[in-house]
Design goal:
The structure is a single chain. With 247 residues, the protein is an alpha/beta fold. The protein folds into two domains: 46 residues, no CATH class; 196 residues, Rossmann fold. The chain is built from nine helices and six strands. A four-stranded parallel sheet has the order 1-6-5-2, sandwiched between helices. α5 crosses α7. The protein is globular, with a radius of gyration of 18 Å. The relative contact order is 0.15. The mean pLDDT is 88. The structure holds zinc ion (2 copies). One zinc ion (ZN) binds next to α3.
Length: 247
């Protein structure tokens, strides 16, 4: 068992003494003061918040200032995504990359709770209207290998904070190749019919919050949102911890 998942204070303090926690990004031992997000204080200072003018739909940065509120980028006007909005907290670059990597592949699932806490502090006010929290699912085979779904590990503590039910309303019915390795056009084909909605009664006519770890093009969230729409969700707000910077 990873010593960092122990939460009882005296035990955690003793373990910190015996196995000093190591920052996931710079690998320095940080003392005193606890790690948050698995990062030391200087590394947390390097996290890049997403700021500046953004499309009101997909949340991509816009290179113009003084745009009216609710301005949509060309892509969103031509082909409106199935979600109403996509929000993300940070840019997906180091040191956040190391945090997400540890959550997904390092079995440090407690990081999901830390990320949920940050989301709640930064965006909680904008999430009050949602009535159900839905994590983007993994295909069961990938989940079996990983041991858990990282999106669920973020969504569950966030639902608790927001006092709203966590509703596992989506199922991934096709194993899909990892999105990051595919070109944009192949991603769309890879995702088509990848999700099916269930528990429709808990979604119908409700504003839903769809949660994932990282958004690249937003295509995965778009297809998951479309499945929620098909079973009657009133609106879908997509939310991720991070967004891949546009090149
Ligand atoms: Zn560090
Ligand atoms: Zn857009």
């Amino acid at each position: 068992m990873d010593p960092r998942i122990i939460t009882s204070r005296p035990v955690a303090a003793l373990l910190d003494f015996v196995f000093p926690p190591i920052c996931l990004a710079c690998e320095r031992e940080e003392r005193p003061g606890p790690l948050r997000l698995g990062l030391c204080l200087p590394c947390r200072g390097r996290l890049k918040l997403l700021r500046g003018p953004r499309c009101a739909g997909c949340g991509r940065p816009l290179r113009a200032a003084g745009l009216p509120a609710g301005y949509l980028c060309g892509d969103c006007r031509r082909r409106p995504p199935a979600y109403d909005r996509l929000r993300a907290v940070w840019s997906y670059e180091p040191p956040l990359e190391q945090v997400i990597h540890a959550l997904k592949f390092g079995r440090l699932d407690f990081l999901g709770g830390h990320l949920a806490e940050e989301i709640w502090h930064r965006l909680g006010g904008d999430l009050r209207h949602v009535e159900a929290i839905v994590p983007v699912p993994l295909h069961w085979r990938r989940q079996m290998v990983r041991g858990y779904n990282q999106a669920e590990r973020i969504a569950r503590p966030l639902a608790r904070r927001l006092c709203r039910p966590l509703v596992p309303a989506l199922r991934r019915i096709r194993p899909t190749a990892p999105q990051a390795r595919l070109e944009r056009s192949r991603r769309q084909a890879n995702l088509r019919r990848a999700f099916r909605a269930r528990r429709a009664a808990r979604i119908r006519d409700r504003p839903v919050l769809l949660v994932d770890d990282v958004a690249t093009t937003g295509a995965t969230l778009g297809h998951a949102a479309a499945a929620l729409r098909r079973c009657g969700a009133a609106s879908v707000l997509a939310l991720t911890v991070a967004r891949t910077p546009s090149r």
